[in-house]
Amino acid sequence: MSAAATIFWVCWGLLFYSYVLYPALLWLLHLVVTKKYRIYDSAEELPSVSILMSVRNEEKIIEEKLDSILHSNYPEGKLEVLIGSDNSSDATNAIVERYSARHSFIRLVPFEERQGKPHVINQLVIEAKHDLLLLTDANVIFDSYNIVNLVKQFKDERIGLVGANIHNRFKEHGGIAEHEKNYIGIENNIKLWEGCAFGTMIGPFGGCYMLRKDLYKPVPAGFAVDDFFIGMNVLLQNRDAILVKEAICLEDVSHDIKQEQKRKRRIANGNLQNLKALKRIFLNLTSAAGFCFFSHKVLRWFGPVLLLVAFIANLFLLRNNFYVLLLFLQLFGAAWTLVDGALMRRGVESGVLRYITYFCRMNVALLQGTFDYLKGKKAHVWEPTQRN
């Protein structure tokens, strides 16, 4: 086999491993080896919890969020809710203050100048009274048993962080709504299986997760992906991180591919910040955390580079008709993405072929974020996703 062919198949093999073989391996492992933890039972007294939220201009959703906390079956006397309003300019502060007047455990912490989500969360952690922290976003709506099902896991001292099972609901159909929903569903399963097999869930969904306060490491200034940094630092302290299926939340699924590409570009920039900060895990591939980190995240973060290198290698193999066909398929994917973009702008659905568009556009976002990082461009101060 020529050098070009070796490079081509290694690049595609690594992508196939990360997207297909690694999830399949985890699925098989969790069937055979599932870590067991002690949990609080219904007769035991549950610990108190501090719920922390960084919000900005969330007047459309903050009432529904607070109502979902109030309708939880967790005792109000064991909750405090700290809402850091990051220089909101709409009615968010007034709404929170109205709830606070009726429920003393809800408190608004206003910031008069933009801070960014990581800084707000760092400050809220300092003010939190309780040993368990529930970090959540305004648009993630709790099931009535969500808090209980998260807290129950912390009876076992090995547990450092527990992620919620976020279900996506459609408010807007079309665009990439179904494709984003299915992708997140697959990610949920991978995180669940990592926790079952190794206790090393690689990064919680930032919309809802709980950890022990003494394991919280302040997020460095300028970091774009705070939840990943927080979660991986729990693993660095030799505690387990898992996802709990029964801890259910609801979140609106994105349907606007431009907004989603913009968000993933910012995240890609933050991913490389995290890779540098967390190299102790990445460089130890013989550990469960290092193996999962490399397989689940690092390979995908460098997916655009692998795709480009494979494409270039393919150009040196065109004497063989098989590689001509493979080159055509790659070019078709790129061309279809442009065509489907025009169809989306006209509200035309392309069904299963839109997965090609979704894959290509999200890898473009990863590549853009990588260039942003290499140029030293800071991720923009966090803005909430546009609410429907």
Written account of the structure:
The structure is a single chain. With 388 residues, the protein is an alpha/beta fold. The chain has one domain (1-388): Spore Coat Polysaccharide Biosynthesis Protein SpsA, Chain A, CATH 3.90.550.10. Helix content is 51%, strand content 15%. An eight-stranded mixed β-sheet has the order 3-2-1-4-7-6-8-5, sandwiched between helices. Helix 1 runs antiparallel to helix 11 (303-315). The radius of gyration is 22 Å and the shape is globular.
Structural class: alpha/beta
Distance between the termini: 53 Å
The CATH topology is given as Spore Coat Polysaccharide Biosynthesis Protein SpsA, Chain A
Coarse morphology: globular
Q: Based on the structure given, which CATH architecture is correct?
A: Alpha-Beta Complex
Range of helix content: 40-55%
Characterize the quaternary organization of these chains.
single chain
Task: Give the strand order of the largest sheet, numbering strands 1, 2, ... along the chain.
Answer: 3-2-1-4-7-6-8-5
CATH homologous superfamily identity: Spore Coat Polysaccharide Biosynthesis Protein SpsA, Chain A
Instruction: Please give the radius of gyration in angstroms.
Output: 22 Å
Domains (count) = 1
Order of helices and strands: HEHEHEHEEHEHEHEHHHHHH
Assigned CATH class:
Alpha Beta
**Total helical segments:** 13
Could you describe the largest sheet, including whether it forms a barrel? 8 strands, mixed
